[in-house]
């Protein structure tokens, strides 16, 4: 027999299931040892779940190492201690070179519209067809222990376990990328990660080397517009779009190819934080996004995205003022509408973060028949990089056998051995061709020319594969038209956020010539934007940078703005309600029930965490005021008696609670008693500062009209 892959879980098939930690909760008694240490011992050693070492030997004492006398030296023969420390010493593996910090979840993908005319991919043949998926969201620049809310691109990687093998759609929450050719990826990442000599800043693009590099790379200007926009500070992983970025290829039964761009559209809509809020959230809850995702799934509020596709052919592509093989360009939805063909629902948290989220290995080269690559030179480089890096990170070419990476369909081949081989291939057929069957032996698997993967031939299209050259196609040379389209498609408020973000980042850049070079590039995108940034830094505008191509004025695309497409309503939103001693319990409960009925969640905040006496009984908070700042909520409400409000008005945490919510343009619902704190916090009446009774009508939306009054945006 050749190697036979696990149907579901390799560990289970190898009989490890009975030895999984946490298999049962045994009855135990708690005792105190000689040295006062806690000893938890099985009550019934014959039937209980006994603690063992990794080779199955039962352990009698998990508190004390073996010593020569009670106060004597520890003995080398203590194999229990040695194994435990040895395993611990080697628990860490290299973190991902990029996208090190991530959060994952299991789910299901269902085809909602069959498209057999354009692709033979098995998952798109029948409406209702489904397959399990694993998704990992990530930040790019920070290390695994960094925070969730820096200004950064977010990874959006989906592994579909289809019946035709794994398909990995390894995308981002931004539809374009910084560079056009894989040759530049190591330089890009070196420049954005912490600087080589000093080891900082962590998880931040606001520093010299990043801006030095991108300002020398005019092709990155479109992506810079996105990275400086609110897209790079998402409110929640559940409220981000996802994009495959590259043009891929769909192939149908007849072998005809069409281009395809993949989109994920969140059912909750797209929403972002404001910069000051994101910075404060990093301190208040470094796991803000991870926790939000985990809690939503744990409570049955399953996040969902629609899978959309833009399908087009070579003739259409040839007419566009940009090259569809250029990953710094998007295709406006107004030109090729996004057609929805499926739904992804995340419905199960991981059981073990390391085994699943950390060990999952995505490979853009994992495609199934019906889906193929294009000549996008960035994609082509990625096809090599991910397979290569997994060997370095997971340590073995057998990383595909780790349960989270193994396909759920059978896999058979003649590959053998290697570090950590956990399968036990039988027989002699580890080569092909062979005729072992003629001697009555199993001769192993053979190729399937009809249903097997065949690559689409690009011949006859706009490239000439016969000439080898290191060259960037002329059709990649327009670096500014789409950057301008993106900027002009934003609302006034969103444009101000972009300008302010660039001012902030450049204020952290200490090399003056880099700031000037960025400004000279911005002039090619929009003169007004360049002037705003120059004014924000108080420097004179330099000359415009030369551009390789004349600008093509592209129509505004409303689909590119978050604010123009914002979803109102409470679904997926969290409301913080502040109460204190003496508060009206009925009012708190009315607000809570109303928000929950409307699909939102509520977090009760009070100065103390234990039960407080309130009008109508007692009430317990979910969080203490100084540990639950308002950045953690989408809207706030307060139910306070004047006496409590007066006491709180003298406390920084309470005043800051309202000041931040106001500054972050959130809805503030309050009772008359709260007025004294609102005055202290400088909260002025406006459309979003309302009596508690209006909270359900107004909802948790942001009140952007407030922003120019409270913040000096660039
Ligand atoms: C030539 C360009 C690129 C190269 C060489 C590259 C390389 C890498 C590498 C080495 C990793 C770490 C993988 C691991 O250790 O598991 C990674 C992760 C990732 N990359 Fe790229 N990348 C490139 C461009 C892109 C682009 C354009 C996108 C988006 C379309 C992207 C999305 C991701 C995502 C989402 C992850 C995280 C996967 C996970 O969650 O485990 N990368 N990339």
Automatic annotation (TrEMBL):
Catalytic residues (positions): 99, 172
Pfam families, per database record: Catalase, Catalase-rel, Catalase_C
EC number: 1.11.1.6
Keyword line: Heme, Hydrogen peroxide, Iron, Metal-binding, Oxidoreductase, Peroxidase
Annotated region (Disordered), positions in chain: 1-45, 431-466
Residue stretches making up the Catalase core domain: 52-440
Keyword Hydrolase carried by entry: no
A Gene Ontology term for the protein's cellular component: cytosol
One MF term in the entry's GO annotations: catalase activity
Protein name: Catalase
The organism of origin for this protein: Sphingobium yanoikuyae ATCC 51230
